[in-house]
Amino acid sequence: MAAKSDNPGNQSVDAQEQMVAGSAWMTAGSIFSRILGAVYIIPWSIWFGTFFLQGNALYGKGYNIYSFFLIAAIAGVPSAIAKQVAHYNALNEYGISVRLYQRGLVIAIGTGVAIAALMFFGASLFTGGDQNLVPVLHSLAWAILIIPTMSLTRGYFQGFQQMAPSAISQFVEQLARVIYMLVTAFLIMRVLKGNWVTAVSQSTLAAAVGALCGLLILGVYYWRRRGHFRSLVQHSNNQLVVPANQLYREIVTQAVPFIVLGAGITIFQLIDQYTFAPIMHAAGHYTDAYLNDLFALFGVNANKIIMITISLSSALAITVVPLLSEAYTRGNKREISSQLTNAFLMFEFVMIPSALGMSAVALPLNIVFYGHAQEALGASILAFSSYLSIILGLYTVVSALMQGISQNKRAVKYFLVGTVVKFVVQWPLVYFLGTFGPLVATGIGFLVTCYLIIHSLNYQFGINYATIAKRTNGILLSSIITFGLARAVVWAGTWLLGDNRIMSFVVVALAALVGGYFYVYTMLHSRLADDIMGPRVAGLRRRLHIR
Length: 547
What we know:
Keywords: Cell membrane, Membrane, Transmembrane, Transmembrane helix. One of its GO terms (cellular component) is plasma membrane. This protein is 87% helix and 0% strand. It is mostly helical.
């Protein structure tokens, strides 16, 4: 066993298998959660009727503010806990990992109470003049009391490479949230003929309902595995003595950068939320209601759908952090370089075809979710946002990679550079490009940040660009053909079946089936999937009878 663990090649294979297995669980949980979080919009939009775009804009504005407060409440502790738990586990000091979790709970509960109180009692300070946001922020504040503890527990499981509890609790959380949203929306808008602002407030209160259910699932998993955790502690080296103050200091030191980097996409969305209307008012004479509709199209509607694909890279990012931390603790630069290369390839493998495929079906997909409201503009924004999702997904991965190797301050510095770039180009781009301006500015800002981070990673550890380039060519070629096939199905299907909601769903399903099968077939047939995802995909190739 010692010889095996000391072999860099074996460690690299084990790490790749761990990454693939962990990514599979986190991707499944994240994907199903995102799909639920997007599909609810179909009945929700029907029940809101003419108030849909206004309601969705209010919902999106409230959630942008909530997301920022939530990240501040969580304070990056879950990811920091996962990283530090993996660090001490690699040293066979499981007792310290347990103490880290206990100290983290104190921080999470304290920050949750403080931030929830600030959001509830200071709601009027964050509305930007829209008083309809006050009851929405009040309802969202309750979720902040629960989610920090839930997220911290997920981070603890992830530090032990146990991804299933996080993935399942994430799905249950989203399921409960969506059920509550839909029931209350139907009762208020259709049965009681109530106020749409009240319906939105209840839809946002669903976040607290979902969080409570997710926390209960994690509690069940922890109770079932308590014997395993105790056994690990009993067989620890117990050679390190870490005072409580040092544990708190480690958590906070690791957590603060996670706040900034984890809130990256939300910060950019908040910049759009508070600057879009003033810039557009300067560019022309538009009503507030019309600008709210436009904000709903690019800041809420399209964003909700592309987050399904971005969640793929987010799942990968969560998996990579503890694995890289272990390699960094051992000081194995060769393993770090290998994992960086694998991480980029796995990102490309799932993100590029997903983004191009979503762009190909943008028109019918937009109709499925949002009907024919602002149909042409909404579809164009969704198609453009699909390409943008590649950059946003890359940001989530590279920022996690920097955190995994304890380059937190440097990663924050690079993000701040990208944020400055976003601010600089925001005004002229929105002024001249209108609704597309914020999206282009976001892409430029994150592209700068990603370039700086990747350049730094390559300088320190070396990234195997030759391997990445060779395999990227195959991924890109298959993805482009997949895009063409999906577009052809969309064109033919729309011409034959029409463009109502049901037929648009059929067209999207057919396009996804044809394009998806082609991509999977080419990846398995060329053995490119084996090189990236490991030997486990051979079983899938046999089941699909692909040689």
